[in-house]
Amino acid sequence: MSKIIMMSGLPGTGKSTIASRLASENNFAFLNKDHLSGTLHLHDTANHSILGYYLLFTLIEAHVQLDIDCIVDAVFPKIGFRERVREIALKYDVEHYILHTLCSDTALHRYRLQTRKSIVLWTPISWERVEEIRDFYVAWDTDTACFLDAVQPFEVNLARAQRYTHTVLE
């Protein structure tokens, strides 16, 4: 049975760092919404962020149909897009894990955002935009997601993510 590991959280909280490590260690497909949105942005596509999600869903479905495990990396600020991933998991009867990244220290979060290496193909996101997203970001329920706080060392969060998703390497 394949797995979908869904990474969600505000920009600068460590989603992509954890996702890429889990993907490389476990040979999972790494499906990053910003990569898709970036390509759309380069081709002057309107609504590239929203369309990036729709392309992401198509790729998730294509991978699980082939029984390929995937890690899905996106902010997922609202319930509708989160539900679409859950629907795909149910449709194909695959395991579905949610890792929610956050940073409980505002100063650290801002520093991380401003000093990180950007993977997007457009102007990197500003702290002001992160604050705007926070205003409409729907909080995850602790019963449905594993919370990973960036104030913890990376290796601590990675180990927690591995245990939660059953991807601990022997």
What features would you describe in this structure?
With 170 residues, the chain is an alpha/beta fold. Helix content is 50%, strand content 16%. The protein contains seven helices and five strands, in the order E-H-E-H-H-E-H-E-H-H-E-H. The chain has helices at 15-26, 33-42, 48-65, 79-91, 106-115, 127-136, 154-165, and strands at residues 3-9, 29-32, 70-73, 95-102, 146-149. It has a five-stranded parallel β-sheet, sandwiched between helices. Helix 2 (33-42) crosses helix 3 and helix 3 (48-65) packs parallel to helix 4. It is globular. The mean pLDDT is 90.
Q: Helicity range of the residues?
A: 40-55%
- Our estimate of the beta-strand percent is 15-25%
Alpha-beta classification: alpha/beta
The span between the termini is 19 Å
> How many H/I helical runs?
7
Low-confidence stretches: none
Q: What is the number of strand segments?
A: 5
- The whole-angstrom Rg is 15 Å
Series of H and E elements = EHEHHEHEHHEH
Q: What strand line-up does the widest sheet have?
A: 2-3-1-4-5
- Average of pLDDT: 90
Shape: globular
Largest sheet: 5 strands, parallel
